[in-house]
Amino acid sequence: MKTKLLVLGLAIGAIALVQPLSAANSTSNVSVSATVSATAKLSVGTSTLTFPNADPDVTPSIVASEGAVSISAKAKTSAGSTVTLTLLAAGDLLSGTDSIAISNLTWSASGTDFVSGTMSKTAAQTVASWSNSGTRSGSQSFALANSWSYATGSYSAQATYTLTAP
Predict the structure, then answer these.
(1) Reported pTM
(2) Counting beta carbons within 10 angstroms of the beta carbon of residue 32, is it exposed (0 to 12), middle (13 to 18) or buried (19 or more)?
(3) Which residues pair with 90 in a beta bridge?
(4) DSSP 3-state assignment of 37?
């Protein structure tokens, strides 16, 4: 029995030597914060559209020489908010004092949430819209209605894309 107690005592002593006599712990908390602000980024594949001369009887609608215009729109916004991409012309197509109504310029669209439309100089026209943050890629194919009534000349106009992420 004394031998068993001696062995038990030695075992307890060995365990005690392996374990630290007292352990110290210290903890500290850190506060983590991040700011995410409304952000919008727009990329348009070309800055120029050209429409070549054509016979209105043969080509009643002239397609832009550049083909489809690629568009990439990225936006961060509040949950449930609507992101919109619009296009607004500064005025009609002008050549000196001659003009072609900008409403003769239309587009067809492809890509998720992109829509077809007609150019306007008075109200921004929706090109794409969606809810919540995200990215959208699409394209617009522009066409100019051709007419025998247009005066000869080299016509131009400016239009502005606006991507809004409230």
Answers:
(1) 0.81
(2) exposed
(3) none
(4) coil
